[in-house]
Structure formats: C-alpha cells, structure tokens
Amino acid sequence: MKALPREALGTWVSGGGKCITIEQDATLECRVTVRPSLGGSPYRIGWVRRASKLPAAVTVADGRWKLEIEVSRDGLGAVYELTWEESMWTPTISSGIYDDEEADFGLPWAMPLESFSVAI
Questions:
Q1: How many helices (H) and strands (E) does the chain have?
Q2: CATH class of 6-119
Q3: Ranges of each domain in the chain
Q4: Which of 30, 51, 75, 81 sits CB 3.0–4.6 Å from 34 for a disulfide?
Q5: What is the pTM for the complete model shown?
C-alpha cells in the first residue's frame, strides 16, 4: 500500500452535494464512505450493505493517485474508481462482468458521476 497525500484525505463534496470520506490508517489501509449529502447516511448497496468504509486499493499511474473500490463481494461486479488530480477526486466506473448492459453499471448510487472538489 502507498500513503495518499495528506491533502487528499477527509470529506469531499461534489457540486450536487454528494459526499465522500477518504480515510487511511497507520497500516496504510484506505477506506471510502459515500453519502448522498453531508451528514447523511451512507448509500445502501444491495439489500443490506452500505457504502460505508469500503476498502480501496491505492495505486499511482501517470503521476495520479487512484482509489479502486470493488463494490461487489464476489469480485465480478463494477469497480468505483476515484482519481486524484488538481486537488479534486474524479469518479469513474469500470463495468463488471455482468453490469455492462445496465446504464448505471449496477451502481445507481454512484450516479451522476460528479467530481468532488470541496474539502470539508
């Protein structure tokens, strides 16, 4: 694991009000929580699970930090990706093996994809 830049950690808000909280502990394990609004409950993923403290793989490519969050439990679903550049987090989604026919790639809570540019 790699240590994220200190300024990339914390709670970030998109223009539409959606929030992400990025935490990294002393072992460099990274966790991400996604909420519809500041102070709101984390989004629900499926029937039981919430988008709270989801494990994120930290990588660096072309000088940009990236968090890859495997949302499904079986490793076959979509991946929610956050890329750090120019002091903001930009989300993208990589489709899973069964999600490519769905407009939201099986992650309706992630839509619309908006950059998180305001740190709280």
A1: 0, 10
A2: mainly beta
A3: 6-119
A4: 51
A5: 0.86
